């Protein structure tokens, strides 16, 4: 009798536990989102390109990458990417996102004239928190529609930018601008530094927002204030974003005021550079200065179209690539570009350096695409989280339509991505595992309202410049 009782208890235990074990196993193998079919351009260390591939996503993280035939388990949602190309989300390493509202306000000018006679006055008369929120939503819509999933920003009212970016589900490295003259949000440097500390503490640890300290440039921020910004970055352990070596006028200013030192030499001498620094432009850089940036592990944001439009010069990108520097691509603000398309930046970067060097082999299509993906992640010191389609990384992904006339026929996927693809070819965008655009329809932003707001502000800007 006791033996039968023991067997009965054992069977009951099995009947209770076994279904739970099966359920748990199914739960573990289930994906929140499964992307199947299509060509997966991973940008992993082996640069694998997987035909008829699959990507499994759970809790915003990539948990499977391989062939569709290798997929095991079910998914809550399946995206069919057959006939398309699946890429890591693009990374814009330098911009000023609200400045899309100044798109086309002043063109065909050199940097200092453009800044001092047009941009700074227009900002002083128009930039408010409301302006910044509208401009941010406009820029975010353009980012998503072009497949950009991460951007590094420097502007004013950065807390509002962070708020709008988080609401839209976009990843941002966002720095409050520190500058030595009254700004729209903070009238003194000390006020801006205090604002920045509060901003960083509020957003640090957010799943999408990485707050940063962002002194504007060596020619607009004093030595003591640059050092204060570096110290704040160190103390709070956040990125340090700056414009650096961006034009002849900057070099001349620094040499005149700092005993003949060039900009990179100057910031090195005062102890500003660190392994958290992201330096935008870096045009005025010789071989020894590039070695400084390499030694300090500085990230670099190359902005070819903005640099060209302002005739600021050509960055030594082939030398940077040869040295293995942390090099990404940026659009700069739409006021000096005049768009936020990284597809155009890839195409321009490859062609600009070919013609400038006289060597058609420099900055290959693969290298240009690297700068927009894993290179951009390295420039932002985030290569462990984003930049490639690999297990363990955040699920930031774009699905690109490859059936358009401008992409037909296709021989080499990298050639097509860099030289033929346009922002309009991006069909679906996923950030942190969430679909934010499907079939070119924005899901986290209202495109119609955004355009209406931008046009109303456009008229106010025109009126303000007549005063």
Structural class by helix and strand composition: alpha/beta
Number of helices: 16
Low-confidence stretches: 11-16, 21-27
Q: Could you tell me the mean pLDDT?
A: 93
Q: Report strand %.
A: 15-25%
What is the CA–CA distance across the termini? 101 Å
Instruction: Give the C-alpha Rg.
Output: 24 Å
> From the coordinates shown, what is the CATH architecture of the domain at 89-388?
Alpha-Beta Barrel
CATH level-4 homologous superfamily of the domain at 89-388: Metal-dependent hydrolases
Shape type: globular
Describe the protein's architecture and organization.
With 467 residues, this protein is of the alpha/beta class. The chain has a domain at 89-388: Metal-dependent hydrolases (TIM Barrel, Alpha-Beta Barrel). The chain is built from 16 helices and 19 strands. Helix 3 (129-145) packs parallel to helix 4, helix 5 packs parallel to helix 6 and helix 13 (365-372) crosses helix 15 (413-419). It is globular. The N and C termini lie far apart (101 Å).
Question: Would you spell out the secondary-structure blueprint of this structure?
Answer:
Blueprint: H1 2-29, E1 33-36, E2 39-41, E3 49-50, E4 53-58, E5 61-67, E6 78-80, E7 84-88, E8 90-95, H2 111-126, H3 129-145, E9 148-155, H4 158-168, E10 171-178, H5 189-203, E11 209-215, H6 223-236, E12 240-244, H7 248-257, H8 263-269, E13 277-281, H9 287-295, E14 299-302, H10 304-309, H11 317-323, E15 326-329, H12 342-357, H13 365-372, H14 374-379, E16 397-401, H15 413-419, E17 426-431, E18 434-438, E19 441-442, H16 447-465
Parallel strand pairs: 1-6, 2-7, 8-9, 9-10, 10-11, 12-13, 13-14, 14-15
Antiparallel strand pairs: 1-4, 2-3, 4-5, 7-16, 16-17, 17-18, 18-19
Helix pairs in contact: 2-16, 3-4, 3-16, 5-6, 12-13, 13-15
């Amino acid at each position: 009798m006791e033996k039968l009782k023991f067997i009965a208890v054992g069977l009951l235990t099995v009947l209770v536990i076994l279904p739970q074990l099966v359920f748990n196993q199914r739960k573990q193998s289930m994906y929140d989102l499964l992307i199947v079919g299509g060509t997966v351009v991973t940008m992993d260390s082996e640069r694998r390109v997987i035909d008829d591939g699959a990507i499994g996503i759970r809790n915003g993280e990539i948990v499977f990458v391989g062939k569709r035939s290798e997929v095991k388990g079910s998914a809550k949602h399946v995206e069919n990417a057959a006939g398309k190309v699946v890429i890591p989300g693009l990374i814009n390493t330098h911009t000023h996102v609200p400045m899309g509202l100044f798109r086309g306000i002043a063109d065909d000018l050199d940097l200092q004239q453009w800044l001092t006679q047009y941009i700074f006055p227009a900002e002083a008369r128009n930039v408010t928190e409301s302006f910044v929120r509208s401009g941010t939503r406009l820029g975010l819509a353009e980012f998503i529609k072009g497949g950009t999933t991460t951007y590094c920003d420097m502007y004013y009212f950065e807390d509002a930018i962070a708020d709008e970016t988080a609401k839209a589900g976009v990843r941002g490295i966002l720095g409050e601008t520190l500058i030595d003259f009254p700004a729209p949000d903070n009238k003194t440097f000390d006020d801006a530094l205090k604002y920045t500390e509060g901003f960083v503490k509020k957003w640090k640890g957010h799943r999408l927002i990485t707050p940063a300290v962002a002194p504007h440039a060596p020619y607009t921020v004093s030595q003591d204030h640059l050092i204060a910004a570096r110290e704040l970055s160190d103390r709070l352990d956040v990125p340090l974003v700056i414009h650096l070596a961006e034009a002849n006028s900057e070099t001349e200013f620094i040499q005149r005021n700092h005993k003949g030192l060039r900009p990179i030499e100057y910031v090195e001498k005062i102890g500003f550079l660190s392994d958290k620094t992201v330096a935008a432009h870096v045009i005025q850089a010789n071989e020894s200065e590039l070695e400084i940036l390499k030694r300090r592990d500085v990230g670099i944001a190359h902005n070819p179209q903005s640099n060209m439009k302002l005739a600021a010069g050509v960055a030594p990108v082939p030398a940077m690539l040869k040295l293995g520097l942390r090099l990404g691509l940026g659009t700069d603000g739409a006021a000096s570009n005049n768009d936020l398309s990284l597809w155009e930046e890839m195409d321009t970067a490859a062609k600009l350096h070919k013609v400038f060097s006289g060597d058609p082999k420099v900055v290959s299509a693969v290298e240009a695409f690297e700068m927009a993906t894993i290179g951009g992640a390295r420039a932002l010191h985030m290569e462990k989280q984003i930049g490639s389609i690999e297990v363990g990384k955040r699920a930031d992904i774009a699905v690109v339509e490859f059936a358009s006339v401008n992409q037909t026929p296709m021989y080499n996927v990298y050639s097509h991505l860099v030289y033929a693809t346009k922002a309009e070819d991006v069909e679906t965008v996923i950030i942190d595992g969430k679909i934010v655009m499907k079939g070119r329809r924005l899901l986290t932003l209202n495109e119609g309202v955004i355009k209406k707001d931008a046009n109303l502000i456009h008229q106010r800007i025109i009126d303000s410049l007549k005063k």
